[in-house]
Write a structure and sequence with these properties.
The chain is 40% helix and 17% strand. By secondary structure, the protein is an alpha/beta fold. The structure holds nicotinamide-adenine-dinucleotide and UDP-4-deoxy-4-formamido-beta-L-arabinopyranose.
Length: 340
């Protein structure tokens, strides 16, 4: 058995897939989640896939004492992967203080606990949203960080700065900051996936719900952008590929003898795909039609962004390998499972 890893937000979408990959790689996992955007049955799904039931504690990362209780109950935690956060961009505009408290206080509590419990490193879930609309594409890790366009995006920027400043000041731990592009899909077993919460704001859950007849039609937000077909372009990355990147990041953080105390990696495929291309590929792959119509632009949308993942490919030794077709199939299989 390798090191013991605390996974905050471990019953969430990306967290649950990462717990599976950590356990498949022989890490011991302790999940902390307050179940604000997931449920405890996810632990069953993880057990079904891996044959191992991870430790699970229903704890809120904003609660410092409860977190201390977790470190005491599971001594010897070597690393943390910190997923726990609120993540809905629109909601963050309506309830900014909730987002600042959750996303910032949770991180502060973990960073303050780490020296006391000799935790050696923290992997942090950041987002390509920190780049805004980059001047140059594909975007690499040296691109400037632009002013955030939502409180959610700002929490990711501030969190990155908090980690940077703590390490600069000599904190006795390392950190790897992972900037995700657009995670999509589900585990191929359909035992875990993204849980719907009200009307989906993100493209793929809305698309699969439309394909399943739960929604009448998908609105394509704009076809007058300066892109080949006029719709926005993103870098959609399979969630299992993304999960695997966390395992190599933890490996590097805990075992790499280099002096790098803080590193940043873009996690994407390197391929930009338009909204219309995505819809058409889904239809061709699954044979299911997605009723859709073009509507006006969505406020705040970036026109186009995709990753230059070469630094992650070379330094982490990680590359996204899943095909778009398999990824969309997994999203569809998960949607059908939800409807059972
Ligand atoms: P998710 O909502 O599915 O998972 C987050 C989990 O954290 C949930 O299970 C939720 O219950 C839990 N949580 C929230 N606040 C908590 C708290 N105070 N204490 C304990 N648990 C708490 O979201 P996700 O898509 O899996 O995202 C995981 C991380 O990745 C987040 O930090 C998110 O900002 C970041 N991220 C997500 C995306 C994306 O498109 N999904 C893109 C870039 C970055
Ligand atoms: C993708 C594309 C939409 C819905 C957001 C956050 C970002 C990150 C991921 C966490 C865009 C279009 C969407 C629909 C559509 N999260 N679209 N019809 O906006 O790239 O990123 O989630 O860090 O911070 O901003 O993802 O899935 O919402 O949209 O046409 O009903 O699909 O315009 O071009 P986005 P998304």
């Amino acid at each position: 058995m390798k090191a013991k890893i605390l996974v905050t937000g471990g019953t969430g979408y990306i967290g649950s897939h990462t717990v599976v990959e950590l356990q498949n790689s022989d890490y011991e996992v302790v999940i902390v989640d307050n179940l604000s955007n997931s449920n405890a049955e996810v632990v069953d799904g993880i057990e079904k896939i891996t044959g191992i039931r991870p430790a699970f504690q229903q704890v809120d990362c904003r609660d410092k004492e409860a977190l201390a209780g977790v470190f005491n109950r599971y001594p010897g935690i070597k690393g943390i992967i910190h997923f726990a956060a609120s993540k809905a961009v629109g909601e963050s505009v309506q309830q900014p203080l909730l987002y600042y408290r959750n996303n910032i206080v949770s991180l502060l509590n973990l960073l303050e606990a780490m020296p006391e419990y000799q935790v050696e490193g923290l992997v942090f879930s950041s987002s390509c949203t920190v780049y805004g609309q980059p001047d140059r594409l594909p975007v690499d890790e040296t691109a400037p960080i632009l002013p955030a366009t939502s409180p959610y995006g700002n929490t990711k920027q501030v969190d990155e700065e908090i980690i940077r400043d703590a390490i600069h000041a000599g904190a006795p731990y390392k950190s790897i900051i992972l900037r995700y592009f657009n995670p999509i899909g589900a585990h191929p077993t359909a035992e875990i996936g993204e849980l719907p919460n009200g009307v989906p704001q993100n493209l793929i859950p809305f698309l699969t719900q439309t394909a399943a007849g739960i929604r009448k039609e998908l609105s394509v937000f704009g076809n007058d952008y300066h892109t080949p077909d006029g719709s926005c372009i993103r870098d959609y990355i399979n969630v299992v590929d993304l999960a695997k990147a966390h395992v190599v990041a933890v490996e590097r953080m805990l075992n790499n003898p280099s002096n790098a105390r803080l590193e940043y990696f873009n996690l994407g495929t390197g391929r930009g795909l338009s909204v219309l291309e995505l819809i058409h590929t889904f239809e061709e792959t699954t044979g299911v039609k997605v009723p859709h119509k073009i509507v006006g632009r969505r406020e705040g949308d970036i026109e186009q962004i995709w990753a230059d993942p070469r630094y992650a490919n070379e330094v982490l030794g990680w590359t996204a390998v899943e095909t778009l077709e398999d990824t969309l199939q997994s999203a569809w299989k998960w949607q059908l499972k939800l409807g059972e």
